[in-house]
Amino acid sequence: MVKVGIIGATGYAGQELVRILLGHKDAEIVWYGSRSYIDQEYASVYRNMFQLVDAKCMDDNMDELSKQADVIFTATPQGLCASLVNEQILSNTKIVDLSADFRIKDVATYEKWYNLEHKSPQFIEEAVYGLCEINREDIKKARLIANPGCYTTCSILSLYPLVKERLVDVDTIIVDAKSGTSGAGRGAKVANLYCEVNESIKAYGVTTHRHTPEIEEQLGYAYDGTPLTINFTPHLVPMNRGILVTAYAKLVKDVSYEDIKAVYDKYYGKERFVRVLEKGVCPETRWVEGSNYVDVNFVIDPRTKRVVVMGAMDNLVKGAAGQAVQNMNLIMGLPEEEGLLMPPMFP
Ligand SMILES: NC(=O)C1=CN([C@@H]2O[C@H](COP(=O)(O)OP(=O)(O)OC[C@H]3O[C@@H](n4cnc5c(N)ncnc54)[C@H](OP(=O)(O)O)[C@@H]3O)[C@@H](O)[C@H]2O)C=CC1
Ligand SMILES: CC(=O)N[C@@H](CCC(=O)OP(=O)(O)O)C(=O)O
Q1: How far apart are CA 262 and CA 253, in angstroms?
Q2: Where is the signal peptide, in residue numbers (predicted)?
Q3: ipTM higher than 0.90?
């Protein structure tokens, strides 16, 4: 049995980790970490866990936790994991960090986009970017996983085959993305109040969103090793969960639907959690909600010679907790899909 500790178990991503791990046959949660609810029953914070979780919330003492847990998930705000981790902890246990602290290899880029001083730059190089479909073999050997961002997972997986196979002009990539409000976390913020969000949709972080350099870096590795430059515009939509990506890029070759479909099948045909949809079917967030699936598809526009790529995913599952458990399974030598085969829920 893998012993698991969660720092930030009372946040949206943390509670989704709890939900998934309760259905995992090889994992046992030994630590429900919190900042605000220490010593309170976890099931009194999340009442869906009544009679399912009999444990109290604990602090964020990562030194102590590292002696008890085989894997620690940090589902905490940006900067916290980097401020807690040290060599002793990493020699005791493995860490899957759901924040962005170890996602970006260039520390100056991280500090600029996050407006934070990085507290553990010495671990950035060894951290493995935990996008399982792309970095599977490196993840298996890692002790520190940088779990990818929600918008980034959907954007990268949607575009990766086209960039890797050099089918698009990478200078023309535009990513338009939408997220449900759980993407913003549980913390109270005026911008996320019901009346501010309901019956409205808005772009935010236009040209400045922190996921931009993460997508640029990862797609750059798929292309020529250096970061690309893209436009990325996120939007907040009045739904609880879900990410929808629509991306555009100019084709560099005359290709048919069948040519591009063959490329997507090459990369994702055997992937359990990436579903390339049938011709003409557009991904929808409602068909992936509550699951670890990413649905992708594309349409060629012969008028503009662009390809339009679409991806849909649950931000809390494949965009956070599901992918984190997928990473845990890989580093612990467990079946990659264990605990993650729940079908999407609807309605
Ligand atoms: N929401 C999403 O869709 C996604 C989130 N993520 C990432 O996961 C992380 C968590 O996000 P999310 O769950 O949305 O955020 P929430 O705001 O919902 O939760 C944050 C969690 O961190 C805890 N926390 C906050 N500050 C501290 C601290 N100083 N010490 C210890 N614990 C602390 C909170 O504890 P308490 O509530 O007890 O105060 C809470 O459990 C973030 O890095 C986020 O970027 C990644 C992908 C998607
Ligand atoms: C709707 C919303 O606010 N979304 C968050 C991104 C989600 C998230 O938590 O970011 P990571 O995936 O990097 O951890 C945002 O725009 O900052």
Answers
A1: 15
A2: none
A3: yes
